[in-house]
Amino acid sequence: MKKRSMFQILAALFVAGIAALGGVGSANAASITQTFFDPLPSGAATLSLPFTFTANANSFDTSMGILNSVVITVTTNVAGEVQVLNINATSEPYSNAGDQTPVTLTGPSGLVASYIAMTTPVSGTVAAAPGPGMFTTKTLTGLTGSSPASTTITGAGLTAYEKPPAANTVTLSYTAGAATVMGTGPPGVFFEGSATAGAKITVTYNFTSTAIPEPASMSLLGIGMAGFFAFRRFFNKRNADV
What we know:
Layout: H1 2-21, E1 27-38, E2 51-58, E3 66-86, E4 92-107, E5 110-118, E6 122-126, E7 136-153, E8 169-176, E9 180-184, E10 189-210, H2 215-241
Antiparallel strand pairs: 1-10, 2-8, 3-7, 3-10, 4-5, 4-6, 4-8, 4-9
């Protein structure tokens, strides 16, 4: 009776070891995120566009697992000011006044993102010109805006983001082009201004890793197996002697 109980205990240890190993060799989702900043200058509109920025991200190390996708998010923060000019003898309305700039981000596999970043549009009224041949200027300061864009890279494009033989970085080149001023108004209303920009780039590697069995789980399995086979050998020998 005692020997049967011991057999049950050893068998239970063996099963527990198998259960503890459950995830060995199975796929486990994981990700690594890297973030790069080149912020707006401390003074509003103190630097003119174009604005360039290079982010050197660490390549994905393929020894960690299988790379499934790369998600690159770029956010452009724009700050600037706009002057609204009116040569008319009456006050005039205006709308959608602001600064805008074309943005491009390229990586080792080519174009990553292309979009227009802009400050939040402003509407209002500009006063009448004080006399013939004169104009009134209304200056809109403290204009800001944040424009994000995200791209997911899969398939063959992933190779360029994996750890190459001779380099450990991936270069992402960001450019915010020369600013233009936007605005809508009646004839006699004009817009001019200036802007600067900053950028935030986030690179996320999504990959599949392989779980490594914990030492405790391996020990539990080993004890169960050793005891199981030892008891089986003893049981078979006893039956042969009978």
